[in-house]
Here is the input.
Amino acid sequence: MNRVAACSAVLAGVMLGASLTPAVADAKRCVRTHEIDGWRASDAKTLYVRAAQTQYYRLDLGNACPLLTDKGAHIAYKTSGSDLLCGPADWDLEVTRDAHGSLPSHCVVKTMTPLSDSEAAALPKGFQGM
Here is the structure.
């Protein structure tokens, strides 16, 4: 009887570990807003975000956000509860200019793609240091 209980406990542990593996992998696809430490736009529909100094993400936008390419542009990341951003629906971006009273432009994120180390290294020079 003890062997059956021990085998059941081991099997349950193995199954639990297997079910946690995808969650751990998915966590690497997520970024917390407080870890975002830089961004650059390659154009009005593509944004690169750096988090925690070493993680890079490409955000493809569903609409053009021309303010992204302005020198004085600022981005606000709005959240509803959690600050964990794991996919396009989690992003609520607003872009503003330096000028006081400028109206924010809302940017819809279509896709969020984590970049591999080699993809991040291939970014143009100005994008790597963000």
Notes: Residues 62 and 108 are 5 Å apart (CA to CA). Confidence is low (pLDDT under 50) at residues 1-25.
